[in-house]
Amino acid sequence: MLSIAQEDKLDPRVKRTRQLLEQAFMEALEDRGFQSITVQDIAERAGVNRATFYAHFEDKYALLDHSMRQMFLQEIEKRMLNACHLSRENLQNLVIAVCEFVKNINSHCTPPQVKFESLVETQVKNVLYELLLNWLEQVETDIPPETATTAASWAIYGLALQWSRSKQPKPVERFASEVLSLLTTSLKLAQTA
Q: At what angle do helices 88-107 and 145-165 cross, to 10 degrees?
């Protein structure tokens, strides 16, 4: 997977084609749901042929992985969390970002589709892991950073998913405060930040 910085260095024609494919994919996702989408659907909507699609992505699952990762990275960068360090405020903002992202993405796919959700989950947790590991490697803790990062990224995603599925969710800021209490205890953040 390419980072946003790597994506920016791609040839402009490659970037444009990828953007067209991603946009077509998201439109098809809203219209038909993930399971019903075919590569042909995506290629036609993007105005390219199937060979062009396959020059960029192995299949619709690879496009989903790429799209979700890029969208979540953009959300993180928009909030400047990728340039931050571990603190209570940044961790709370990260929880809010995950909650809002998960709720927004899941609204594109109704009824919920397990395979789609698990693919989204994988990408969000991977980005969370990378970001949190970077933050945790900058502070001293009693817990190995990899272990703490795995636990925190799984907890954040799982709780955000539960919040997004709630019929009457708490305000996201209040929910994030509750999650923050759990995370600061498990990460021993109160002592390190």
A: 50
- Give CA separation, 11 vs 15, 17, 23, 146, in Å: 6, 10, 18, 35
Q: List pLDDT tens digits, range 99-138.
A: 999 998 877 655 556 677 888 899 999 999 999 999 988 8
DSSP line for 33-53: -GGG--HHHHHHHHT--HHHH
DSSP for residue 111:
S
Neighbour count for residue 104 (Cβ, 10 Å)? 12
Residue pair 103/170 in contact (Cβ under 8 Å)? The answer is: no
What is the tens place of the pLDDT at every residue in 47-96?
A: 999 999 999 999 999 999 999 999 999 999 998 888 888 888 999 999 99
Q: Provide, for the chain, the percentages of residues in helix, strand and coil under a 3-state DSSP scheme, each rounded to the nearest 5.
A: 80, 0, 20
Helix axes 172-187, 88-107, angle to 10 degrees: 130
Return the pLDDT at 176.
94
d(CA 91, CA 97) in angstroms, rounded, equals 10
Give me the helix-helix angle, 88-107 and 60-78, nearest 10°: 140
Residue 59, classed as helix, strand or coil, is coil
State the number of CA atoms in the 13 A half-sphere of 58 facing the CB: 6
Instruction: Specify the residue for token string 């947790």.
Output: 125
